[in-house]
Specification:
Elements: H1 11-29, E1 55-56, E2 63-67, E3 71-76, E4 81-86, E5 92-94, H2 108-114, E6 118-124, E7 127-132, E8 139-146, E9 149-156, E10 162-171, E11 174-179, E12 185-186, E13 191-198, E14 205-206, E15 212-216, E16 222-225, E17 237-240, E18 256-257, E19 261-262, E20 274-279, E21 284-292, E22 297-302, E23 310-318, E24 322-326, E25 334-338, E26 347-355, H3 361-374, E27 388-392, E28 394-399, E29 402-407, H4 411-423, E30 430-434, H5 457-470, E31 474-480, E32 483-485, E33 506-507, E34 515-518, H6 521-537, E35 542-546, E36 555-557, E37 560-562, H7 564-581, E38 583-587, E39 599-601, E40 615-616, H8 619-624, E41 631-634, H9 641-651, E42 654-659, H10 680-700, E43 706-711, E44 717-721, E45 726-730, E46 736-738, E47 741-743, E48 747-751
Parallel strand pairs: 27-30, 27-42, 30-31, 31-35, 35-38, 38-39, 41-42
Antiparallel strand pairs: 1-8, 2-3, 3-4, 4-5, 6-7, 6-13, 8-9, 9-10, 10-11, 10-12, 11-26, 13-23, 14-23, 15-16, 15-20, 16-40, 17-22, 18-19, 20-21, 21-26, 22-23, 24-25, 28-29, 32-34, 33-34, 36-37, 43-44, 44-45, 45-48, 46-47
Helix pairs in contact: 1-6, 4-5, 6-7
Length: about 750
C-alpha cells in the first residue's frame, strides 16, 4: 500500500470541492420535473449516428464489408447477420444460425429467434411477452457503408413500429457493435421496447459439433463446455450486470434457523460486463465486453438443450421494464405499470477476437486486462503483499430500555495483537476496523469521524492509526456508506424509495437491529465526502467503503424516476473524490469502480455453483493480478480451509482474517451472533502460517501478470507468470507430477523464473 499518498487539499480548496459535490447531489436528488433527469452513461462513444456512405445491397448473400490483415467481416442484410473470418487459419464465427445448420426441430418463434441478429422483447400495454425478430415480424433494413463497416437502419413494422440503428465496425481484431441512443424510436403509443438482444448467437455451436467452452462472469469466473448436455438443464446463466436492481424488485427477510442464523447464501454478483466464446479446435475465440449500457444489461450464457440445441452467449439490454405499483399504503390493491421513460444510453458491445494459443480463457483475461489499462478503467496500484487482519470493535445488545455496548476489540487490543504478530514475522499488515464508530458496528450511516468511547475514543483511534503506520501497518476505518439503521437514525428523509414509490426495506432476523434502509445516492455521496474531509483534518487518510461499491439501483423522488445510470454516476463521483484524497479499499466493487480503489476485498474465489457450470476458473483474478491487490473473504468462515488456501495460491489473492480480542461468546445477544469463530488467539498460528507461505509466493511473482492458466491431463493446475515463475497446485488426494515437478497431495509447488 502507498503509505502517504497525496490525500488532502488545503482547507479552502477542500471545502470548495466538497460544496461542488454537495450542490451536484442536491440538484440530482431534488429534481422534480415530470420527465426524469437522465445522466450520460456513454463512456466511450458519441451518441450521434455516424456519417453514412453509399447504400449497400447485401440481400442475396453474405457481402464482404470490411477487412484488414487478419480478419474479414461479411454481412447478410435480411437477417442482420454477421460473419467474422480469420484470414490466418480460416476459422469462422457467425451471428445467426444458417439454413444449413438449422436442425429443423424448432417452432416458428424459435426459428425466427435463431436466425435474427437483433431480437427485441416488446411490451404492449403492460404485457411484456412479445418477441420481435427479423424473420417473424415485418421489417425493413437500409444499410449504408461507414468507415471499416456498416450502419443499418432497422424498422420493425406491423404491430410494433420500432426503429433502431446498428453501427458495426471492424477495428483490427475487434468487432464493435453499437446501437446509438438517438436511433431508438418507439413510434406506436402503448407499445414499447423492453429488451434488445445484440447478436444473440454470435459464435454459436450446435450440440457437441465444436470443442470449446463459454465464459460465464459468475463469481471469479466459470466455464460451460460445448459438449452435448443431453437436455439435462432447464435454464442457463442469466445475470444482471452489477447485481439485481433493488429499486425495481421487492426484498424479503432472509430465511433463518433457530431465529438467528441465516440459511441462504446469496449467489455471486456479475462484477464485470464480460462474456466469451472459445472454439478451441479452430483456435478462434472472442471476449465480449459491454462498453456502454452495462448498468442495465444482463449477460446470457445458455448451453444446448435449453429450448434449442445451440450453445450461445450474448448481451441483453434492458431499456424499459414493468413493475407492480401499490394503489394505497396498505398494499391492498396494485396495478401493473410500465416505466415512464426508457434507458438513455448507447448500447455497445466490443468483441475482441483471439487466435492461436491466445484463443482460451487466459487469453480472454489478458485481453480484458489490456483493455482496462488502455482505457483507464483500472489504475496500476501498489500490489506488494500484505496479510489482511480485520477487527470488530464494538457491538450492541439489548439492555433495559435501550442497548449497551459489547466491546470486542479496543484500539489498544489491536496494537497489542499487531505487535505480537510482528514478533512472529507477520509485518506490513492491513486491517479494516469495523465497529469503530460511536454507537458500534450497526450505528449507520456513518456521518462523522467520531470513535466509540469503548474502543478508546477518537484519541485512541488516532493514536492507533498513526503509530501503526509508523510500524508499517495500515488501519482502515470501515464505512458502510449505503445502509441506514431504522433504530439508530431517522428514516423520514434521505432513504431510498423504489420506482413504485414504496420505501425499500431490508429486513433481517437479528437480535437487536432487524430493519435497515438504503440511503439516497446523493446522501451517501455527502456522507462519504464528509467522512473523508473530517478524517483528513485529523490526519487520517485510510478508509474502507462497502455497500455503495456493490449495489446499484433505480429509485424515485418526489414523483420523478432516477435510473441505475444516475446512481452509478453519483457513486463514481463520490468515490473518485475519496480516492483523490485517501488510500481507499473497496469491498467487492463492481467493475465501473475498479479505478477508484487501491485494493479490493472479499474477492470471490469460486462461483455460485450452478448445476450447468462445468468448471470454475479464477478469471477476474487473472485479469487483476499484478495491477490491483485483491483479498479473499474471511478464512475464519471457510468450511474447507485447505481448498480455500490452495485457491489463494492458484489465483494470487491475498488472505483475510476477521478477529476479536474477546471471545466470540460475548456476541451471542448481538446482531453478530452468527460470527461464532473470531477470537484472535484461535487464529494466531494460522495467520502466521498463511503469511509466511503466501508472502514467499508473492515475492516470487511480484509485479508479474498471469500469462497462462491450465489444468493438465493428470489434474494438476499450472499457473504461469510473466516473469517466468510457474505455480503448480494439486487439489487431488495423491501426488501428481508434471515437467519434472512432483506436487504432494493437497499442496503446491513453485518453479521460480530465471
Amino acid at each position: 500500500m502507498e503509505a502517504n499518498k497525496q490525500k488532502r487539499l488545503p482547507l479552502i480548496i477542500g471545502a470548495a470541492a466538497a460544496l461542488i459535490i454537495i450542490v451536484s447531489v442536491v440538484l440530482v436528488a431534488v429534481a422534480g420535473s415530470s420527465k426524469p433527469m437522465q445522466l450520460s452513461t456513454d463512456k466511450s462513444h458519441s451518441k450521434e449516428i455516424p456519417s453514412l456512405g453509399e447504400r449497400i445491397s447485401a440481400a442475396d448473400d453474405f457481402l464482404l464489408v470490411a477487412q484488414n490483415d487478419d480478419y474479414e467481416l461479411y454481412y447478410y442484410e435480411p437477417r442482420f447477420s454477421l460473419k467474422v473470418v480469420n484470414k490466418n487459419n480460416g476459422a469462422v464465427m457467425e451471428s445467426t444460425v444458417s439454413d444449413e445448420k438449422d436442425d429443423g426441430k424448432n417452432n416458428k418463434s424459435w426459428t425466427g429467434y435463431i436466425k435474427s441478429g437483433i431480437v427485441i422483447n416488446a411490451i404492449i400495454g403492460t404485457l411484456n411477452t412479445y418477441q420481435v425478430d427479423l424473420n417473424t415480424v415485418p421489417s425493413k433494413i437500409e444499410t449504408y457503408a461507414i468507415d471499416n463497416g456498416i450502419y443499418a437502419k432497422i424498422s420493425f413494422l406491423g404491430d410494433y413500429m420500432f426503429d433502431i440503428g446498428v453501427e458495426v465496425r471492424l477495428e483490427g481484431n475487434e468487432l464493435v457493435v453499437r446501437i446509438p441512443d438517438g436511433s431508438v424510436k418507439e413510434n406506436k403509443e402503448g407499445t414499447y421496447i423492453s429488451t434488445i438482444s445484440v447478436l444473440p448467437f454470435m459464435g454459436y455451436t450446435y450440440l457437441d459439433d465444436e470443442k470449446g467452452y463459454m465464459l460465464v462472469p459468475d463469481g471469479n469466473g466459470a466455464l460451460i463446455e460445448l459438449d452435448n448436455k443431453e437436455g439435462r438443464y432447464s435454464t442457463g446463466f442469466s445475470g444482471l450486470v452489477y447485481g439485481a436492481d433493488e429499486g425495481m424488485t421487492s426484498s424479503s427477510a432472509v430465511p433463518v434457523i433457530w431465529e438467528s442464523y441465516e440459511t441462504v447464501t446469496e449467489p455471486s454478483t456479475v462484477l464485470a460486463p464480460v462474456f466469451g466464446m472459445a472454439h478451441t479446435d479452430d483456435e478462434l475465440a472472442y471476449l465480449g465486453i459491454v462498453e456502454s449500457g452495462d448498468e442495465r444489461c444482463s449477460i446470457e450464457v445458455v448451453p444446448n438443450g435449453i429450448m434449442v440445441d445451440y450453445n450461445r452467449c450474448f448481451a441483453k439490454f434492458l431499456l424499459r421494464d414493468v413493475f407492480v405499483q401499490p394503489l394505497n399504503q396498505s398494499n391492498s390493491g396494485t396495478v401493473t405499470t410500465v416505466e415512464k421513460d426508457r434507458l438513455h444510453s448507447d448500447l455497445t458491445v466490443r468483441y475482441i477476437f483471439l487466435e492461436g494459443d491466445d484463443a482460451d480463457y487466459t487469453g480472454m483475461a489478458g485481453a480484458y486486462r489490456d483493455y482496462l489499462l488502455e482505457n483507464g478503467a483500472v489504475k496500476q496500484r501498489d500490489t506488494s503483499y500484505h496479510t489482511r487482519v480485520d477487527f470488530l470493535g464494538t457491538e450492541r445488545e439489548e439492555f433495559l430500555m435501550g442497548t449497551k455496548a459489547v466491546a470486542m476489540t479496543t484500539a489498544d487490543d489491536i496494537s497489542d495483537i499487531l505487535d505480537e504478530l510482528s514478533q512472529s514475522g507477520v509485518q506490513n499488515v492491513i486491517s479494516v476496523y469495523k465497529g469503530w464508530q460511536k454507537g458500534g458496528l450497526y450505528n449507520l450511516p456513518v456521518t462523522d469521524y467520531t470513535a466509540d468511547g469503548n474502543i478508546g475514543g477518537i484519541a485512541g483511534l488516532d493514536r492507533l492509526i498513526t503509530e501503526q503506520a509508523e510500524k508499517g501497518n495500515s488501519i482502515y476505518v470501515y464505512d458502510d456508506a449505503l445502509s441506514v439503521n431504522a433504530k439508530t437514525h431517522s428514516t423520514t428523509y434521505n432513504v431510498m424509495k423504489m420506482v413504485n414509490k414504496r420505501t425499500f426495506k431490508q429486513e433481517h432476523n437479528r437480535q437487536v437491529y432487524d430493519l435497515f434502509y438504503y440511503l439516497m445516492p446523493g446522501r451517501s455521496s455527502t456522507n462519504i465526502s464528509g467522512l473523508v474531509d473530517k478524517a483528513g483534518k485529523r490526519g487520517i487518510d485510510t478508509i474502507a467503503f462497502s455497500g455503495v461499491s456493490e449495489k446499484l439501483f433505480s429509485y424515485s423522488y418526489k414523483g420523478s424516476f432516477y435510473s441505475r445510470t444516475d446512481t452509478m454516476d453519483i457513486y463514481d463521483s463520490a468515490l473518485e473524490y475519496a480516492d483523490e484524497r485517501c488510500t481507499v479499499i473497496l469491498e467487492t466493487p463492481n467493475a465501473y469502480l475498479w479505478d477508484r480503489g487501491d485494493a479490493f476485498t472479499d474477492m470471490p474465489l469460486d462461483s455460485s455453483d450452478y448445476l450447468y457450470i462445468d468448471r470454475e476458473i479464477p478469471f477476474f483474478s487473472i485479469v487483476l493480478k499484478g495491477i490491483v491487490p485483491t483479498y479473499s473473504g474471511y478464512v475464519n468462515f471457510e468450511a474447507n480451509k485447505t481448498e480455500n488456501f490452495l485457491k489463494m495460491v492458484e489465483s494470487g489473492v491475498y488472505p483475510s482474517f476477521y478477529v476479536t480480542a474477546q471471545d466470540s461468546s460475548k456476541l451471542i445477544y448481538t446482531n453478530s451472533s452468527d460470527l461464532y469463530s473470531l477470537e484472535y488467539t484461535s487464529y494466531k498460528d494460522t495467520i502466521t502460517d498463511y503469511d509466511a507461505k503466501l508472502r514467499a509466493l508473492a515475492q516470487q511473482t511480484e509485479g508479474a501478470f498471469i500469462t497462462d492458466h491450465e489444468v493438465l491431463e493428470n489434474g494438476l493446475c499450472r499457473v504461469s507468470y510473466s516473469n517466468g515463475t510457474k505455480v503448480y497446485v494439486n487439489y487431488g488426494e495423491v501426488p501428481l507430477t508434471a515437467e519434472d515437478m512432483t506436487v504432494e497431495a493437497l499442496s503446491y509447488a513453485v518453479e521460480e523464473g530465471v
